[in-house]
Amino acid sequence: MIEVVLDTETTGLKVSEGHRIVEIGCIELNDLIPTKNRFHCYLNPERKVSEQAFKVHGYTDDFLIKQKKFHEIVDDFLKFIGGKRLVIHNAEFDLSHLNNELALLGKKKINEEVVDTLVIAREKFPGSGTSLDALCKRYNIDNSRRDKHNATIDCELLSKVYINLLDQKEPTFKLNIENDFNNILKGKSNNKYFNKVIKPSEQELKLHKDFLKKELKKNFFN
């Protein structure tokens, strides 16, 4: 299963107030394992960043005005996410902004399948905190780099949270420890590490015996 963890940063909360996207980050997952395929860009939103948004992500107007505009990256972005399931925390927010950008260019809305991790978290932990930071704390995921919101960092954290939300903490390993242990006790293990017995040589036995005598003499007769 190929999925894309996606996050955006914007000039403000509401599309209805004319707010635009300033950053897009995407990380591809293959069977829950991050691949090397990533998509990231800062964007010139063609408007000023609100004071509230600046406090969240810290991107200044002077920095953003030097970046590409959405129409310059839209084809690469759509190609990257095309046909893949999207994993987003609070998908309604990100999709409303992305679809607004597409609408401004006369393009169709995103119609890929979407998994909203916020919905999953609320169903799994009713009444508890379900922000990305709260979920990182719940699952002991280090989010110390997240002093400000950043699309790439947030995608990295969300990919780890997502695995935990699905109860798939180690997607790269399929171990049956209990059965292996029981087989070892019954002498039926195929694990060569446990079956292998290494016998000490006569010299090793003599050295060990001399060592014990020395320690006994030192501890009990001095």
Provide a concise account of the structure shown:
The chain is α/β, with parallel strands linked by helices. The chain is built from ten helices and five strands.
Q: Note the total helix count.
A: 10
Give the amount of beta strand, in percent: 15-25%
Sheet with most strands: strand arrangement = 3-2-1-4-5
> By CATH's scheme, which homologous superfamily of the largest domain applies?
Ribonuclease H-like superfamily/Ribonuclease H
Radius of gyration: 27 Å
H-E string: EEEHHHEHEHHHHHH
Mean residue pLDDT: 86
**How many β-strand stretches?**
5
CATH architecture classification name of the largest domain: 2-Layer Sandwich
Secondary-structure map with pairings?
Elements: E1 2-10, E2 21-30, E3 33-42, H1 51-57, H2 61-64, H3 70-81, E4 85-88, H4 91-104, E5 114-116, H5 117-124, H6 132-138, H7 151-165, H8 177-185, H9 192-195, H10 202-220
Parallel strand pairs: 1-4, 4-5
Antiparallel strand pairs: 1-2, 2-3
Helix pairs in contact: 5-7
Question: What would you note in describing this structure?
Answer:
45% of the residues lie in helices and 16% in strands. Helix 5 (117-124) crosses helix 7 (151-165). The chain has helices at residues 51-57, 61-64, 70-81, 91-104, 117-124, 132-138, 151-165, 177-185, 192-195, 202-220, and strands spanning 2-10, 21-30, 33-42, 85-88, 114-116. Strands 3-2-1-4-5 form a five-stranded mixed sheet, with helices on both faces. The radius of gyration is 27 Å and the shape is elongated. The protein folds into two domains: 2-165, Nucleotidyltransferase, domain 5 (2-Layer Sandwich); 177-220, no CATH class. The protein is built from ten helices and five strands; from the N terminus they run βββαααβαβαααααα. With 222 residues, the protein is of the alpha/beta class. The longest helix is centred in the last third of the chain and has 19 residues, at 202-220. The model is unreliable at 170-178 and 188-196 (pLDDT under 50). The N and C termini lie far apart (69 Å).
